[in-house]
Amino acid sequence: MKTFTAIVQKEEDMYVAKCSEIGTVSQGKTIEEAIDNLKEATELYLEEFPSNEESHPILTTFEVAEVAAA
After folding, report:
1. Cβ contacts of residue 22 below 8 Å, gap of 6+?
2. Going by CATH, does the domain composed of 1-70 fall within 3.30.160.250?
3. Do residues 21 and 3 lie in contact, with contact meaning Cβ atoms separated by under 8 Å?
4. Which pTM was predicted?
5. Of all helices (H) and strands (E), which one includes residue 70?
6. DSSP label at 46?
């Protein structure tokens, strides 16, 4: 088993999940469904394009100045 990172964002009425290490993306009506679909998409991708790299993203936050609305 390998562990990957999922980044999940709400877009309109769906959740979009992206695996930052592989680049696979999927969606679902719930967070759980989006992640389940991402797991399946990532497994299918890795069957076709095996990866032996052990790359883990660096997750951090940053601040930007607020822009006043006109």
Report:
1. 4, 42, 45, 46, 51
2. yes
3. no
4. 0.81
5. none
6. H
Domain spans of the chain?
1-70
Kindly give the confidence (pLDDT) of every residue in the chain, 70 residues in length, as a single tens digit, with 9 standing for 90 and above.
Answer: 888 999 999 999 999 999 989 999 999 999 999 999 999 999 999 999 987 777 778 888 999 998 877 6
pLDDT at residue 56, rounded to an integer? 78
Rounded Cα distance, 20 and 57, in Å: 7
Instruction: Give the Cα separation of 21 and 1 in Å (integer).
Output: 15
Q: Which residues of 43-64 are buried (b: 16+ CB within 10 A; e: fewer)?
A: eeeeeeeeeeeeeeeeeeeeee
Whose tokens are 């883990």? That residue is 56
Q: How many residues does the chain have?
A: 70
